[in-house]
Specification:
Elements: H1 3-12, H2 15-35, H3 39-62, H4 68-91, H5 97-119, H6 128-153, H7 160-196
Helix pairs in contact: 2-3, 2-4, 3-4, 3-6, 4-5, 4-6, 5-7, 6-7
Length: about 200
Amino acid sequence: ANPSQNDFWQDCKTLPNILSLCRLLMIFLATALVLQGWILLALVVAVPAALTDYIDGYLARKFGMVTQLGALLDSLADLIYALVCLAVAVHFRLWPVYLLIFWGVRDMTVMAIRASAAQMGFSIPSSYLAKVGVNFNFYAFLFLGIDIFLSQRYPHAALRPWVHGIGLLGIHIGLCLYWISGITYFRRYIREYRSTA
């Protein structure tokens, strides 16, 4: 048997990676539910899906189960989760479309920079600022889910403007931190590029 194949399937069976795969499935399930009008049930699925992002990383570090596959699945799940949440927010006309565009441009640029850096033999690790931004985004998406539920079931609820405002503020702060971290990645890429040229 090919050792690399054995390693791949072995890594698939680790608990953190199983959680990441479950997160991906739960994201798609929550999306289908929200588009069918099952808002509350979608929230019940989406919130635990988001929480697994904290749990799988913790378990991987604590029990020495950090793998390249795990890093890939975690990044993929994070990207799809943010993409789906922003697309749903735009679909329901709760958040402006520029948020989706700004997020997409930033993340695609960072992915391209990291791919180029890997080809040249160096890496660009995630910054603390980006992780803070991710946390702001997570809480913004939580408020978005509540906002969608209220807009569909209780559009005139007194609480709704506050929920909507907090969600919008959170995603704007998160994206600003995201862009600042993206600029620092680009500056580091330029420095490393010059040193390897």
